[in-house]
Amino acid sequence: MDLAYGPRYEAFRREVSDFLVAHRERFPRPGARDESLAWQKLLLEHGYAARTIPREFGGFGAEPDILESRIIAEEFNSAKAPTGLAGQGVSMLVPTLLEVGSDEQKRRWIPPTLAGEIIWCQGYSEPGAGSDLASISTSAVEDGDDFVINGQKIWTSTAAQADMIFCLVRTEPQAPKHAGISYLIFSMKSPGIEVRPLKTMTGHAEFNEVFFTDVRVPRSQIVGERGEGWRVANTTLGHERGMLGDPNAAETRLAAIIDLMREETAGGERLIDNPVLLDRLMRLQARVLSMKFNALRLVSARLSGEPAMLVALVVKLQGCELNHQLAALAIDALGELGVLYGESPHLRDHGGWQQRYMFDLGLIIGGGTAQIQKNIISERGLGMPREPKSEG
Amino acid sequence: MDFALSQDQKLMQASLVGTLERICPLSRVRAYAESGEDVAHDVWRGLTELGVPGILIDEEHGGVGLKLLDAALVAEALGGHVAPAPFLGSAVLAPLALMNAGSPSQKAAWLPRLAAGEALAGVAIGEALGAARDGAGVTANNGRLTGNALFVIDVAGADVFVVADSSGGLHLVNSGEKGLTAIGLTTIDLTRRLGELRFDATPAEPLDCAPPDAVLARLRDAAWTILAADMLGAGQAMLDKAVAYAKERRQFGRLIGSFQAVKHLCAEVAAELEPCRSLVWYAAHAFDAIPGEASLTAAHAKAHLSEVSRFVARTATEVHGGMGFTDLVGLHYWFKRVGLDRQLLGGPERVRREAARMQGLA
Question: How far is A97 from A110, CA to CA, in rounded Å?
Answer without folding.
Answer: 8
